[in-house]
Design brief:
Region (Disordered): 1-48
Keywords: DNA-binding
Strand content: under 5%
Biased composition (Low complexity): 1-22
Helix content: 55-70%
Number of strands: 0
CATH superfamily: Tetracycline Repressor, domain 2
Shape: globular
Distance between the termini: 23 Å
Radius of gyration: 20 Å
Pfam families: TetR_C_29, TetR_N
Protein name: TetR/AcrR family transcriptional regulator
Number of helices: 12
Length: 246
Amino acid sequence: MNEPVQKAGKAAAQIAPAAVKVPARRGRPPKAPVPDQEAEPGRTNDPERTMADILAVATSEFAAKGLAGARIDEIAALTRTSKRMIYYYFESKEGLYIAVLEDAYSRIRRIEAALHLEDLPPEEALRTLVGFTFDYQLANPDFIRLVMNENMHKGEFISRSSTIIALNVPIITAVQQVYERGVAAGVFRPDVDAVDLHMSISALSFFNVANRHTFGAIFKRTLDTPEAVAARRASVVDMVVRFLRA
């Protein structure tokens, strides 16, 4: 397997939600700590840590139960804080849900930026990006579930977030630059749209997680063995590369 792609896969698998810096929502800095007599005794007032804890638990809750099914009471109990503090930081259940979406997109986009695709030859850069996308989505099923849930809402809450829209500009720019370098070098064919290419990469990686159980049940295949995952990964990378080759 290509060494840069291997490194990208390891980065995708090793990222931990607790290590992520919480993005300030709607351009506002985190609020100062508020006294919370309902919180567990002895818990220190650390806004950044508290918000990160809440986001980590809320991510799992919203991914598993959706916006309608998740309960602020349960999130408060699991984070050893209170509804009052959650509302203080995030204003509402919908505000917390949007913050979770922002955090999820922030994480993947930050790692993509660290791939340094500009330092690689075009085809190698493309293979690295596709391999990373496949590995990241495989290692982060909660991200897939959040996206599926938000699609059930027809993108209503993502549309409210200027942060998410801004976060996704760099990946399109990166795809465009890799593609244009490949066209200039004569290795990629012309007339491919960068957003369409990004959609194809995402779709091939997304389906592998979102539809694994139904696809496996229908066609009587076990799709989660290391051998099956490696074979599917190689197929996805090759499909995208062959699609672009001149």
